[in-house]
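Subject: DUF3995 domain-containing protein

B.,
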Amino acid sequence: MAPTSAPPTWQHRAAHAVTLLALPSCLWRIGLALGFPLGYTDEGHRIICPPGLAGPVYLIGLSVATEIAALLTLGLVQRWGEVVPRWVPVIGGRTVPVPAVLIPAWIGVAALGALWTPFAFWWAMPHDDMTPAGHTLVGFLYLPLVAWAPILAVLAVSYRRRR
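Prediction pasted inline below.
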């Protein structure tokens, strides 16, 4: 099945916005990995980022994985989400099967919804390992991620309609 039409500008903007939604929390985690408490008490920081290499590697790896997942959202509006780039060995130039895009997208919608929706209630949850200012700051850094699943769902529906 060949692609039918280009996505409208608002969809490109929405897909690019996802990468920006994830950025504040990713940068915050990298700061934690670099040893800055960033709103945690000393004990809370030791829990979230244990001494040694494992804690920082985990936090940086999580930030990188989050941004990669956010960048994959672009596949719903970019040409490479419809046709495999020619430089890819063996399959380059072939049409991307619609299920190969939509199945991971809908799994992502479910996973992201389950993961980030509770952050809409962040301020109602106690966090004894954080300072009051840190608790407020982290809430604002993570709150944008609540929008990721709905944006991904809208883009997945649009992708399906176009293809």
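The CA atoms of residues 115 and 146 lie 9 Å apart.

T.
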